[in-house]
């Protein structure tokens, strides 16, 4: 079986963040292996949240994401600055976390003697948490007090067990939204996407971008779910059920949404479900939306591929075709719906735009709604893709999905 090459440092078009950090770290060719100890990883390796990991078999435009500008700043500030950074980012890490359990903002003397559990609003599409609840542990804290937490999920349908990170916006704990559903954004990383999901690292700014978008009125307050993408760091599984391999297609399309429904107030319809992903994660998000248009409505696909190309498909052409976005799009067009929305993002300093424009020309019609957004001076990294989301893609996806409705005063 083909194995992927070792991860390489960025090329001569590396990002500014990477160039800055090279002043402070020794040169080495391979991306460091993640230690078993989670806290050691957070301290030593959180600076590398978005490395895009190994290239897939064919030549790609992928570049390493680089390192956190926050770490550069901390190093510049010296030991005291680093200690303050560590205290802020990691304070409370490892502690148990509950979502949606904030006390109501009502003075004690005005509280009712007993409070019944919240029931759905008048919207029949609202789905209250179905349970059972997962055990969450904090992995990061944002400046606004919101928490990124992790749990271990044993997929009931896929049989695969892996880590999942989650983040809920401040609005989720606001009492006036206690009976409302929230849209879910499943965020998928590039590269191997194992054993971690780099969107769970606060330094990339995904969660902050959503928070700022909510404040500006350009984004819905998404619940962000960030699962591991693959079962190991040897192969890429195309987010699919490749015969004889772990059922990663079922994991992404069935088990992860079921987990979100078990733990959060969501929506029954596809109007509250979407993906975002970078590189290989962009491919999986787009493929899953086209494959399950009854469950998911939209995707922000940044710097991704268009067709499946895992070496594990060898000897399984029919199954590979069933996971090919081009064939899935044609099938959706022929069946006349339902409508799906694909927003491609591509940096002007990376290659691959021609794949996106070709897909748009061939399949961006009928129920397949496509846009291609350029990120000026953007490279193949998570920071620039988040910038593209702030510049328009978050607003785009918020217009096609359903947002929470506050309870009338």
Description:
It is built from 11 helices and 12 strands. With 409 residues, it is an alpha/beta fold. It has a 10-stranded mixed β-sheet with strand order 1-3-4-5-7-6-9-10-11-12, sandwiched between helices. Helix 3 (69-77) crosses helix 4, helix 5 (206-216) packs across helix 11 and helix 7 (280-291) runs parallel beside helix 9 (325-334). It is globular. The N and C termini lie far apart (62 Å). Mean pLDDT is 81; it is low at 1-87, 102-108 and 110-115.
Question: What's the layout of helices and strands?
Answer:
Blueprint: H1 16-21, H2 38-45, H3 69-77, H4 79-90, E1 96-97, E2 126-127, E3 136-141, E4 147-154, E5 161-167, E6 184-188, H5 206-216, E7 223-227, H6 248-263, E8 266-267, E9 273-278, H7 280-291, E10 298-302, H8 317-321, H9 325-334, E11 340-347, H10 353-363, E12 368-375, H11 382-400
Parallel strand pairs: 6-7, 6-9, 9-10, 10-11, 11-12
Antiparallel strand pairs: 1-3, 2-8, 3-4, 4-5, 5-7
Helix pairs in contact: 3-4, 5-11, 7-9
Q: Can you give the mean pLDDT?
A: 81
> What would you call the structural class?
alpha/beta
- Count of individual helical segments: 11
* Shape field: globular
Strand order across the largest sheet? 1-3-4-5-7-6-9-10-11-12
Flag low-confidence runs: 1-87, 102-108, 110-115
């Amino acid at each position: 079986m083909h194995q992927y090459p070792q991860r390489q440092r960025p090329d001569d078009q590396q990002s500014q963040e990477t160039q800055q950090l090279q002043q402070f770290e020794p040169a080495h060719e391979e991306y460091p292996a993640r230690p078993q100890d989670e806290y050691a990883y957070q301290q030593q390796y959180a600076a590398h949240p978005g490395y895009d990991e190994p290239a897939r078999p064919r030549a790609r435009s992928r570049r390493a994401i680089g390192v956190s500008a926050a770490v550069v700043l901390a190093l510049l500030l010296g030991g005291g600055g680093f200690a303050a950074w560590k205290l802020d980012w990691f304070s409370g890490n490892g502690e148990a976390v509950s979502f949606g359990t904030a006390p109501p903002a009502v003075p004690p003397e005005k509280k009712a003697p007993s409070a019944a559990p919240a029931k759905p609003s008048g919207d029949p599409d609202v789905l209250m948490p179905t349970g059972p609840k997962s055990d969450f542990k904090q992995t990061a804290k944002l400046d606004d007090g919101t928490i990124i937490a992790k749990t271990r999920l044993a997929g009931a349908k896929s049989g695969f067990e892996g880590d999942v990170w989650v983040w809920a916006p401040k609005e989720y704990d606001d009492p006036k939204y206690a009976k409302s559903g929230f849209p879910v954004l499943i965020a998928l990383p590039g590269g191997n996407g194992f054993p971690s999901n780099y969107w769970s690292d606060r330094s990339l700014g995904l969660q902050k971008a959503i928070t700022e978008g909510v404040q500006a009125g350009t984004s819905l307050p998404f619940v962000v779910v960030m699962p591991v993408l693959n079962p190991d760091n040897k192969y890429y599984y195309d987010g699919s059920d490749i015969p004889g391999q772990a059922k990663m297609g079922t994991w992404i399309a069935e088990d992860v949404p079921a987990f979100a429904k078990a733990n959060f107030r969501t929506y029954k319809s596809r109007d509250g479900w979407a993906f975002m992903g970078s590189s290989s994660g962009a491919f999986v998000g787009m493929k899953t939306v086209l494959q399950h248009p009854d469950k998911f409505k939209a995707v922000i696909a940044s710097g991704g591929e268009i067709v499946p190309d895992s070496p594990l498909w060898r000897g399984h052409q029919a199954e590979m075709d069933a996971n090919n976005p081009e064939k899935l799009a044609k099938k959706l067009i022929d069946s006349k719906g339902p409508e799906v929305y694909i927003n491609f993002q591509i940096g002007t300093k990376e290659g691959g735009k021609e794949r996106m424009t070709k897909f748009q020309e061939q399949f961006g019609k009928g129920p397949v709604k496509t846009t291609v957004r350029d990120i000026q001076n953007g490279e193949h990294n998570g920071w620039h893709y988040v910038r593209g989301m702030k510049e328009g893609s978050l607003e785009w996806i918020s217009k096609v999905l359903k947002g929470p409705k506050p309870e009338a005063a």
